[in-house]
Design goal:
With about 120 residues, the chain is an all-beta fold. It has no helices and 11 strands. The strands form 2 sheets. Strands 2, 4, 5, 6, 9, 10 and 11 form a 7-stranded mixed β-sheet that branches. Strands 1-3-8-7 form a 4-stranded antiparallel β-sheet, with no helix packed on it. Strand 4 and strand 5 form a beta hairpin. The radius of gyration is 14 Å and the shape is globular.
């Protein structure tokens, strides 16, 4: 069982920055991939950024060059640094942890990010 606790959401003006944090209840070395997803009302949850253990991160085209995913293994925490925020980045952001064998996904409770124009 993996519990994920997100923090760092809030209200920011367009062009501003926020950093989201996701702390896992287990060592992130035991997790195959971690990522950030976002969802707006009436739309499907979409991938924002994902990093696999020992691999390179990948990003949604809409956030490339603006968002950076990183991890602090000692703190069992994954971050999402969001710069040059746009109103269309407004969403609930969810942290995700993937276990490959057996396949299972864990989700955080979500944190609201609102970007005003």
């Amino acid at each position: 069982q993996v519990q994920l606790v997100e923090s760092g959401g809030g209200l920011v003006q367009a062009g501003g920055s926020l950093r989201l944090s996701c702390e896992a209840s287990v060592s992130i070395f035991s997790i195959n991939a971690m990522g950030w997803y976002r969802q707006t009302p009436g739309k499907q949850r979409e991938l924002v950024a994902r990093i696999t253990r020992g691999g390179s991160p990948n990003y949604a085209d809409s956030v490339k060059g603006r968002f950076t995913i990183s991890s602090d293994n000692a703190k069992n925490t994954v971050y999402l640094q969001m710069n040059s925020l746009k109103p269309e980045d407004t969403a609930v952001y969810y942290c995700n942890a993937e276990i490959f064998t057996p396949p299972y996904n864990y989700w955080g409770q979500g944190t609201q990010v609102t970007v005003s124009s």
